[in-house]
Amino acid sequence: MATRRKKISSLPIGRFIGPPLTIVLFLVVGYLAMTGRLPFLNGASDQAATTEAGLLPGTEGGLQLTSSGDPAAKPIETLTVATFNIQVFGVKKAEDLEVMRYLALILRQFDVIAVQEIRSMERAPVDQLLELINSTGEQYKVILSERLGRTDSKEQYAYFWDSRRIQFVEGSSYLVNDSADFMHREPFVASFHALQAGVPGAKPFSFTMINVHTDPDETDQELNVLDDVFQSVRAYEFSEDDFILAGDLNVEIDKLGELGQIQSVESVNREQTNTAGSRSIDHLLIDRTATTEFRGAGVINYERDLKLPRELADRISDHRPVWAVFDSSEHAPQGVIAALPETVSR
């Protein structure tokens, strides 16, 4: 009996083009992966890519994590300020490329970041970090303080900022004058403003930051000096009404001493800030009467928000970044701001 053969023309077209198309796609994906153009296949960025649509919980002013710092991904109506102790940052940490990639990912989430505990005697690790931050097309800049401290283990403060969204006020950075040596490291001050207001016709939000890292063995004395620092800086910057004291203060919110007793001034974060999740010692303090632009605050929890194992979280830093969201348009202060000292030298 004769058998009936199927006509070739009756076969689905996919059976002809499927195998070669699969080979082509495989080659294309392989090429993109090898050249680093697929972030989710590129080393440490694998886990970081899972955060692209991750919303940080905690406040109505939530922070949207992105795998890059594309300004289009950041709302024009707000800007985000952060403080981050990057724990003994120097040549050794800069050699850990996985940690450096995560530090860059974290820092590019924010418009302005006050950084503490840069221990390197060379500038190269800071420049390397800045290069990584900008490796996906960003235009961040950085300023560094002098190396500070009474011992051989000196530290520098830094401010990183996204120059496409933020303007650093030239000549505004200085170390607070501490001629009596009340503090182990003098606070580092700098002023910034948004390049564009979120509300048409409004003035862009401007603010002055005070970057601080207290000595854990001298917190009682230093916190009782920082209230004078805060008051003196805002007396000196008399044309400004928005001040953010940012840093690792080594004490909980209820242990801020005289700093915490300034009228209307408070630490805006309520989450644990050490990697172990047991303490809240990193702070962003604002005068809630003056800085009515404040929208919300929180931390980046490495294990929760970046889905990182604890071992990697500990390598990044023993501190979590603390952030706060502000309107990018200037608001008028409410009520009466506390009286200020008459003068301050810098």
From TrEMBL:
Keywords: Endonuclease, Exonuclease, Hydrolase, Membrane, Nuclease, Transmembrane, Transmembrane helix. The chain crosses the membrane at residues 12-34. SMART domains: DNaseIc. It comes from the Bacteria. Residues 82-319 form the Endonuclease/exonuclease/phosphatase domain. One of its GO terms (biological process) is DNA catabolic process. One of its GO terms (molecular function) is endonuclease activity. Pfam families: Exo_endo_phos. InterPro entries: DNase_I, Endo/exonu/phosph_ase_sf, Endo/exonuclease/phosphatase. Belongs to the DNase I family. PANTHER family: DEOXYRIBONUCLEASE (PTHR11371), EXTRACELLULAR NUCLEASE (PTHR11371:SF31). This is Endonuclease/Exonuclease/phosphatase family protein.
